[in-house]
Amino acid sequence: MAPVVESFQPWVEKYRPRQVKDVAHQEEVVRVLTNTLETASCPHMLFYGPPGTGKTTTALAIAHQLFGPELYKSRVLELNASDDRGINVVRTKIKDFAAVAVSSGSRQSGYPCPPYKIIILDEADSMTEDAQNALRRTMETYSRVTRFIFICNYISRIIEPLASRCAKFRFKPLSEDIMHNRILHICEEEGLSVDSEALSTLGTISEGDLRRAITYLQVIPPQVVQSLFAACKSGEFDVANKEVTSIVAEGYPVSHILSQLFDVVVTAEDISDEQKAKICIRLAEVDKRLVDGADEYLQLLDVASNTMRALCNLQQEFEA
Q: What are the DSSP calls for 162-222, one per residue?
């Protein structure tokens, strides 16, 4: 027998809620949708709110709970409207899928399996106005056999004729407590240890986006960036160089390190605006060099040394 190969699944997918009731911090949305699933009579729906708050997760959970694994592929069409956003896509792919009727059938393996299909349009606010108008006509024509779920960040970018045909659900930004509890759960499952300070930093730089926080947690533990920043504040080049060497040796993506370091610097309360500006300018310059193919170790060392110089200058000003 071939050896079993361990699956390296992104944690965002691994810990994605599978049922609507498991979606965090969206009590009103969960309550209404749970009642809707009991009758399996879903209207067209529009989910809007900040990124990383559970919109796509909820849409996928609805589809899975209605059709189950057997009918999911034939009854559900997922499209990212930021990629497929032109009127031709509406006239071909979406219209062809929406036009096909399905049998009324009955419950299969405990799933309702209602007599309609679902089209999930993620990032629908990226669609052109012409495409949205064409989509409105498709919704009118095939509403008996097809339901649409629109997902967007900005509801103001959805034309009113389209929005008025949907039940609207607003997803709230996640609170720090919810973020912390979810991150701690993942850390427990993955055997990681995260102290309270690192947890707080991760919550701050993620700005209520749980997907972003989970991605950061998997790609770069928050302690790594904190240690680098602390080394720069120490004013000792050897300590900072050791941290930079460790980061490169561990294979952490330096571009992500710079992104997190930027957030840490901007939110730091013991640094003046002038010092933050100097550090951020250097971060931008180094990020451009990395895009052009510069050496990661040298560029990260450049960031560390210039951050240290800015912080040391700040301390000298206080001493004076």
A: HHTTSEEEEPPPPPHHHHHHHHHHHHHHHT----HHHHHHHHHHHTT-HHHHHHHHHHS-H
What strands, in cross-sheet order, belong to the sheet with 167-170?
76-80, 117-122, 146-152, 45-48, 167-170
> Is the distance from CB of 120 to CB of 77 less than 8 angstroms?
yes
Residue 143 is assigned to a structural domain of this protein: yes
Distance separating alpha carbons of residues 58 and 21, to the nearest angstrom: 9
- Domain membership of residue 146 (yes or no) is yes
The answer to whether residues 184 and 154 belong to one domain is: no
Please give the Cα distance from 191 to 223 (Å, whole number): 15
Q: Which residues contact 145 (CB under 8 A, 6 or more apart)?
A: 98, 99, 100, 101, 102, 115, 116, 117
- 2 band by pLDDT with thresholds 50, 70 and 90: very low
CA distance 277 to 290: 20
AA identity, residue 91: R
Residues 237 and 88 both lie in one domain: no
pLDDT tens-digit map of 175-219: 888 888 888 888 888 887 777 777 877 777 777 788 888 887 887
* Full-model pTM: 0.72
Q: For 10-49, where are the alpha helices, taking DSSP H only?
A: 11-14, 27-39
Task: Give residue 133's domain range.
Answer: 11-170
| Residue 36: inside a domain | yes
Give CA–CA dist 306/296, Å, rounded.
15
| Predicted confidence (pLDDT) per residue in 129-182, tens digit | 888 888 888 888 888 899 999 999 999 999 999 999 999 999 988 888 888 888
Q: Which DSSP letter does residue 7 get?
A: P
Residue matched to tokens 């996928």: 60
Q: What is the pLDDT of residues 210-269, one digit of tens each?
A: 888 888 788 777 778 888 888 888 878 888 888 888 888 877 778 888 888 888 888 888
Measured distance between the N- and C-terminal CA atoms of the chain, rounded to whole angstroms = 72
Same domain? For 111 and 222 the reply is: no
